[in-house]
UniProtKB/TrEMBL annotation:
It comes from the Bacteria. It comes from Listeria fleischmannii FSL S10-1203. Residues 2-130 form the Glutamate/phenylalanine/leucine/valine/L-tryptophan dehydrogenase C-terminal domain. GO terms for molecular function: glutamate dehydrogenase (NADP+) activity. Keywords: Oxidoreductase. This is Glutamate dehydrogenase.
């Protein structure tokens, strides 16, 4: 193993021109434009999962849908962090201590509640898998 890392700097926006299987926009809102989405599709992206608050423009999302790219919108893909933060606040305000399994159960209920409120078109565009540990 080498002792140094070989890293390449990409100017703002250029990262989405790199061929990849999965794109994970996790920094800022409107990070992926329509043109960048088209570049991702052209370069063979198979899935996009948003880890920031609305990092893809509406036009970019339309490009993903039109090209049948698996798409995890921020509302669902990033909901775990928001849900756990809400659970932490609830736990702290009640001065209770929950086990990992209790937090996990509360988070599952949070996902079920909020996923059911998503428009059907978003539900159909997502592949939901339960990951067991």
């Amino acid at each position: 193993m080498k002792n140094t890392l070989l890293l390449k700097f990409f100017e703002k926006g250029d990262i989405w021109s790199v061929p990849c299987d999965i794109a994970l926009p996790c920094a800022t809102q409107n990070e992926i434009s329509e043109a960048q989405a088209k570049t991702l599709v052209r370069n063979g992206v198979m899935a996009v999962a948003e880890g920031a608050n609305m990092p893809s423009t509406l036009e970019a999302v339309n490009v993903f849908h039109q090209n049948q790219i698996l798409f995890g919108p921020a509302k669902a893909a990033n909901a775990g962090g928001v849900g756990v933060s809400a659970l932490e606040m609830a736990q702290n305000s009640s001065r209770m201590s929950w086990s990992f399994s209790e937090v996990d159960e509360h988070l599952k209920k949070y996902y079920e509640k909020h996923l059911l409120k998503m428009p059907v078109s978003l539900q159909k565009s997502m592949v939901m898998k339960e990951i067991s540990s």
